[in-house]
Design a protein that fits this description.
The protein is mainly beta. The chain has one domain: Jelly Rolls. Helix content is about 5%, strand content about 50%. The protein is built from two helices and 18 strands. The chain has helices spanning about 5-10, 115-120, and strands spanning about 25, 35-40, 40-45, 55-60, 60-65, 75-80, 90-95, 100-105, 110-115, 135-150, 150-155, 160-165, 170-175, 175-180, 185-195, 200-205, 210-215, 220-230. The strands form three sheets. Strands 1, 4, 5, 7, 10, 11, 15, 16 and 18 form a nine-stranded antiparallel sheet that branches. The protein has a six-stranded antiparallel sheet with strand order 3-2-6-17-8-9, with no helix packed on it. A three-stranded antiparallel sheet has the order 12-13-14, with no helix packed on it. It is elongated, with a radius of gyration of 20 Å. The N and C termini lie close together (about 10 Å).
Length: about 230
């Protein structure tokens, strides 16, 4: 059922604390070191920090520092060694410093993860906790049909009608005429991204395969309890 798991178990050992993942989930970060991750071409098995100290393991979490040991900032990324091409669910917890900016990569496409409330972003996230741990729950599925009109995704509550009259196509969205040329339909993999159970992105487009990653950008960010479950159809 979980054909991917034996390889993951070999890469990611038992966690450092007493917390255990839910049934069916395998840890991508063991809480002790960066085994199973890579930083550019730098192998990290058994190491607790990257050579430039931009990423470090402290108290059971991956800390993304704003600057490296030489005082240089900018965007830097840390990725899992394995690539994931099956449908999956990934869960992790993050803690953001004041107005910090970071990201989580799903098959190398970035979900912006930030100190949302104090930056005035994602205002629908009423459960977000300042200076505390928040949980991301991301489900990736392939073969999903996505329809947009004028660049806006059509939801399950919308009614899109397409007709052809005298050889000419006509379209209506919720009873209102729309330009057919502004309708786009695609089939691919999408990620539903939740923060503490609330929607951050309902259908983020992602590639068909790729690793999981975390970003260091501005401010201090911490990530822990990163785990993944392969989904069956």
């Amino acid at each position: 059922m979980y054909r991917l798991f034996p390889a993951l178990l070999a890469l990611f050992p038992v966690p450092a604390d007493e917390w255990k993942p839910e049934d069916g989930f395998v840890l991508l970060f063991n809480g002790k070191d960066l085994t199973g991750w890579k930083y550019g071409n730098e192998a990290l098995d058994g190491k607790t920090e990257t050579a430039d100290k931009r990423f470090q393991v402290v108290d059971g979490a991956i800390v993304a520092n704003e600057k490296d040991a030489a005082g240089k900032g900018g965007i830097k990324d840390l990725y899992t060694v394995p690539s994931f091409d099956k449908d999956f669910q990934v869960r992790l917890e993050f803690r953001a410093g004041l107005k910090a900016d970071s990201g989580v990569y799903i098959r190398r496409n970035q979900l912006q993860v930030r100190d949302y409330k104090r930056r005035g972003e994602q205002k629908q996230l009423t459960k977000f906790k300042d200076d505390d741990w928040n949980e991301l729950d991301i489900t990736v599925r392939g073969g999903v049909v996505t329809t947009t009109v004028n660049g806006k995704a059509v939801t399950a509550k919308d009614v899109l009608e397409l007709t052809v009259k005298d050889g000419k196509p006509e379209a209506k969205l919720n009873g209102q005429p729309v330009d057919v040329s502004n309708i786009q339909v695609s089939v691919g993999a999408v990620a539903e991204c939740l923060c503490n159970g609330e929607v951050v992105d309902k259908a983020m487009k992602v590639p068909s395969a790729g690793p999981i990653g975390v970003q260091a950008e501005s401010g201090k960010f911490e990530f822990r309890r990163i785990r993944l479950k392969e989904l069956t159809k």
